[in-house]
Amino acid sequence: MLSITVTNIVDELLSYFLQDVDNYELFVKFYETRYPWLWQKQFSNCQRIGLNIKRCINEISNHLAISPKTFNNISRICLEESDEVKNSVVNKYNDCFDANVKVYIYIDLNCGAGWATQSKQTYLVLIGVKSLIDLGFNTRNTIKKILFHEFGHIVSWMYRNKIEEIESLEQKDYDPIYMLYSEGLAQRIAYDFLKSNCWFQPKKWYYWCERNFENLAQEYFQRMLNNRSVDDFFNIMLSYKDKTQTGYFIGLKFINYLENKYSIEEITKLELSDVEKHIFNFLLKNSQHRRKHGVCGSLRSTKCLSELRKHRYR
Fold it and tell me: Do 206 and 120 lie in a common domain?
């Protein structure tokens, strides 16, 4: 049986923090005493990516000074949409998994609008209200898309049935191979619920990605080979050729490619070494680079893949 619970802690935090919104320690104390695991996750994330925690809390104070009800209003929309998404996910997967998933709607320290993770052997979906506000993701439709995407990650992990792997997998968030596989899977699972409405961008973005797919595949392939960042393919604040989040488009294409051979469940259970081989083949097959230069001809050769790995990790 699949159990999903939703908790909104925004009102609870604000009733505590609004006593003195300029008191940095009050915000920290709330999390440390009532939700220590959530504070530790945020603290570790801030350290990992170099965020100044005090500055983040000051930004929250400024938001509250300008529009004190915004956090409450957005959190209530999140709560309503979470209940709807929860019902859809349970209806589809209740007979597939015996697991607990907890959704928390909280005020985040720039940890992202959506975050799929785990704590104490429990799957978690964290919806960060501050990030939703900062990114302008405050409509029901957008929040629903975020929720289904994060549940896409959770479903893929439940299929693997190795919750203890999640922390180590999260450390691969900047690896271009794992990112393409993981985000593509989450988007593919979300697609089952949302169909063509799964994208955050307008239709013209989708049509541009279709027209320029060979170029996108080539650029991503070259970044992988040269160990260069692919942040501008995924980070909503960055862009490649003035288009944001094109990595999700490539990722979904990659999963569709794998579906010619595997079921979604089988794809979630692939060894990462096999995923790497498939991604090299997929990108090279769809890249302008192959058509124009014929690099290696095919990655079916073990020798060729070995050379590309050397090039990538040099």
Answer: no
